[in-house]
Amino acid sequence: MELRLTINNLSFSYGSSPVLKGVDLAVELGEVLGIVGPNGSGKSTLLKCINRILKTKHNTVFVDGKDINKLNLKELSKIMGYVPQSSLSVFPFTVFDIVMMGRTPYIHWSPSEQDYKIIAETLDFLGLNELAMRHFNELSGGEQQKVMIARALAQQPKILLLDEPTSNLDIKHQLEILYILKNLAQSKYCSIVMAIHDLNIASRFSDKMLMLKKGCIFAAGTPENVLTEENIEAVYGIKAQVTKSIMGKPQVIPLEPLSSNEASETSSRSYLLNIKSR
Amino acid sequence: MRLNNRRDSRNSYIESKGKKLFGIFCISLVLLVTAVISVSLGAASPGFVEAVQVIFSKILPFLGIDPGSKITQFIILELRLPRILLAIIAGAGLAASGATMQGVLRNPLVSSYILGISAAAGFGAALAIALGIGVIGGVGWYLIIVNAFIFSWLAMVMVYGIARLRGVTTETIILAGVAIGYLFSALLSLIQYVAPEYEAVRAVVFWLMGGLNHATWESIMILFPIIILAIVLMVLQAWNINVMSMGEEVAMSLGVTPKRVLTITMVLETLATASIISFTGVIGFICLISPHIARMLIGSDHRFLIPCSSLIGACLLLCSDTVGRLLLQPTEIPVGIVTSLLGVPFFLYILISRRRRIWS
C-alpha cells in the first residue's frame, strides 16, 4: 500500500488566538505539496502540527490511516523528517556529525556499519562528500541547507517536511535544492510537503498546492487552479498578472499592492510632500 | 570513483574518532603524571621516592617494600593522597556537569551553577556555620555538608518547578536559574550581615572560596561512587544532548523529547555538583572552562566531550590545588582563587592561539 498523509479538520491555536482553522489535505507518496500564503497565515504551524512538534487533537493527522497521536515520537521520526527554516548549532559540529544525528531514531549510542553506510550514501547523494569533515557553521547558507536536508534524509523518512527550504539562498542553490526534492518525490522515495514563499518556485515544483489565508485553506489543487489572479488578490492583497511560463506552469508577475483605502494614499502622499519641503 | 569518495567520508570520520580517543588517552596520562608529581610535593619533607615507596607498600604489600616512617606514611596516605583524589573526583564531576549543562542548554556561558546551586549551597552552609541551624540534626562539619547538599537540591527543585509553569525549555530554565541564584545570594548576604560573630562571617567567606583541605578517605568513599555514576549516566545521555544542540524542534523530529532530556540532565548535574560542593565549598570556573578546552581539542560530540571535559577538569583542579598548597608555604591559597588565576591565562592562550572559530 502506498503511503498517504491525510489531515482532517485540523485546528490549532497558540493560547487563545487560533492559527489554523479546519484544515484538510491529502498527500500521496511521491507528491510534492507546496504550501503558500502570506506571513502569519499558518504555514509553519501546519508543518509543526503534522510533525507533532505542536500537539493537535486526536484523529486529525493520519499517516497511512494511523493517527499520529497514537505513535510515539520515535516511531514518528522514522516516518517523517523535518527541516526547519533556519538552523544554527551553537557548538562546532562537523557535517558528518550532523548527518549522523539523522540516524537517532535507529541507534541508541553508537552507530553501526549500516548507519555509517547510510550516512555516507546520503552525503554522496547531496554532493557533500568534500565537506564531510568541515564545521557546519563555516559553510555557506546553501551548503548548510543541504546538510539539514541530508540530516533529515538519513532518517529515511517517507514524508519530508520543509519550512522555507530556499529562503536566503542564491538562485543556483535554490534550483539545486528543489531539483533534489523533486527527484526524491518522482523516484517515489518520499513525499515532500514544503512551506514556500516564492509563488513561481511553488508553481514550478509542486504537484499540488495549498493556499492559506489566516489559518484557513483558501484554495487547493493544481498550481493552475490555485495561482489565479483573483486568488492572489484576495489572499495577498496585491494586483498580479498570471501568465504561462515556458515550462507550461502558471507564472505570477506581481504588479502593485492594492491600496486598502483612499485615506492611506492621501496621507502617504502628504507625508512625502512634507519630507520634501523640509 | 564515486565509491572511493563514499568510503572516504566514512573513513575520515573513523579516523577523526580515533584521534579523539587518542586525545582522551593523552589527557589521562597527563592526569596520572600530575597526580604522581603532586603526591611528591608539599610543605613536609617526603619526596617522590618516599611517596612511591609508601603507596606501593600499601597496594602491593607482598613485595616487602619498606613503607618508611610513621610520619611519612601519615603525610602521604592521610593528607596528600585523599586530597589529590578529592581534587580529581571533584574536578571531573564539576567539569562533566558543566559540559552537560552547556550542551543541553545550548549556551557556552552556562556553568554547572546555572541552576543557582552554588548560592543555595552557600546559603545552606552559612546557616550551619554562622547560625548553627541545620535541616537535619548533626554537628560541626557534617551539619555544613548536609545543609549545603539539601539546599542545592532545593534550588534545583525550585528552578524546575518555576520552569514547569511556563513549559520546560532551555530559556525558562536559564532565567529561573538566574533568578533563584540571586534569591539565595541575597539570603546568603543577609546571613553574613546579621551573623553574630566576626569569626563566623570569616568562616562563611572561606567556605565560599572552596577548598580541598578537608579531604578524608571517608568523603572520597562517599563521593567516588556518586560522581562515577553521575558521569556514566551523563555520557549515556550524550547522543540526546548532541541532538538537542540543533534546536528543540529538530530534536523532536528525531524522536527525542527535549523536556525529558532536560529533566534527566538537571537531576544528574545537581547530583554531581551538589555532592561535590557540599564537601569542598564553591569551586568556580572549572565547570565553565573545562568544556571549552575539551571542545577545542576534540570537538562537540558529547559522547567524547563529556569524558574529555571531566579529565581536563580533574587536571586543572589538581594542578591548581597543588600550586595553592606550595606557593605560599606554609600557608595555603584557597583553591578557588588559584583555579581562576591559573585557568584564565591558560584559557585565553588557547582561545587566542586557535585558528578555528569555536562559537558562532
The total tally of domains of chain B equals 1
Number of strands of chain B: 0
Percentage of residues in helical conformation of chain A: 25-40%
Give the low-confidence spans of chain A.
Answer: none
- The CA-CA distance between the termini of chain B, in Å, is 35 Å
Mean pLDDT of chain A: 89
Give the CATH level 1 class of the domain at 4-79 and 157-222 in chain A: Alpha Beta
Could you walk me through the main structural features you see in this protein, from its secondary elements to its overall organization?
The complex is a heterodimer of chains A (278) and B (360). Chain A has helices at residues 43-50, 73-77, 95-101, 113-125, 141-153, 171-186, 199-205, 223-226, 229-236, 262-277, and strands at residues 4-14, 17-28, 32-36, 61-63, 66-67, 80-83, 159-163, 191-195, 208-213, 216-221, 238-244, 250-257. In chain A, α3 runs parallel beside α5 (141-153). Helix content of chain A is 35%, strand content 27%. Chain A contains ten helices and twelve strands. Chain A has a domain at 4-79 and 157-222: P-loop containing nucleotide triphosphate hydrolases (Rossmann fold), CATH 3.40.50. Chain B is mainly alpha-helical and 360 residues long. Chain B has one domain (2-353): Orthogonal Bundle (ABC transporter involved in vitamin B12 uptake, BtuC), CATH 1.10.3470.10. In chain B, α3 packs across α12 (286-298) and α4 (117-131) packs antiparallel against α7 (198-209). Chain B is globular. The chains are: A alpha/beta (278), B mainly alpha (360). Chains A and B meet through α2, β6, α3 and α4 of A and α1, α9 and α10 of B.
